[in-house]
């Protein structure tokens, strides 16, 4: 029997955890699988081992792992496979496959542009600028991906500039990015947190944007990306896809 095990990142924020769970509950209603379970890599229970065990207890003979992560980095390449490997040994008769991270997709860039327009509730001007804020990773592919994202957003919104900064692991930091973009501001500054759900990281971004607002800067912040239904549709499509759309886990 086929099962889907969704894996989110996890957060210490109760609000962020609830947002992720509600998102996945909505997804599950559109996925054609008799068994579906939600789990998280860290911080938020149930964790991967428990979610996997629940699938087995409900009669799963094949489990598709669907990670709810924006980009391919250490969690996708190392942490999740490390969690799955001992489960394969414990349940050798269970077929295990996994989908990829959401990646840099045109539909996601379209959704970001729409979120910005919805946030501004009016026209975007060429003097406006964007600060794209990533979670951050030491994986070298992270910078490559964010350069692609920045270029795609700039094409769609025709703003004067799109700067990139990160919340952890690599520079420029978010604080550095804020200082740089406010020093050269000509029009409005729109901060885009490249985060799927709310949580402590989004709270940090919003707080620092408010501090800049109090100093008189014309700066504002968009919401988490999962607020756009395009993200939900991508996850639904991944979960419903047949075997050629995803790769086997290395055992």
Structural class by helix and strand composition: alpha/beta
> Oligomerization state of this entry?
single chain
Mean pLDDT: 91
* Rg result: 19 Å
Strand order across the biggest sheet? 2-1-3-4-9
Q: List SSEs in N-to-C order.
A: EHEHEHEHEHEHEHEHE
Biggest pleated-sheet summary: 5 strands, mixed
Shape: elongated
Q: Give the class-level CATH name of the largest domain.
A: Alpha Beta
The total count of strands amounts to 9
Q: Poorly predicted ranges (pLDDT <50, ≥5 residues)?
A: 244-251
Q: Can you tell me the number of structural domains?
A: 2
Strand proportion, as a percent range, falls in 15-25%
Helical element count? Answer: 8
Organism: Jeotgalibacillus campisalis
Protein name: Cobalamin biosynthesis protein CbiX
Pfam family, one: CbiX
GO molecular function: lyase activity; metal ion binding
Describe what this molecule looks like in 3D:
It is a single chain. The chain folds into 2 domains: 2-102 and 228-248, 3-Layer(aba) Sandwich (Rossmann fold); 106-227, Rossmann fold (3-Layer(aba) Sandwich). Residues 244-251 have low confidence and may be disordered. It is α/β, with parallel strands linked by helices and 251 residues long. Helix 5 links the parallel strand 5 and strand 6 (161-166). A 5-stranded mixed beta sheet has the order 2-1-3-4-9, with helices on both faces. The chain has helices at 14-28, 48-57, 74-90, 106-120, 141-157, 174-183, 200-214, 229-240, and strands at 2-8, 35-40, 62-67, 95-98, 129-134, 161-166, 189-193, 219-221, 247-248. Helix 1 packs across helix 8 and helix 4 (106-120) crosses helix 5. It contains 8 helices and 9 strands.
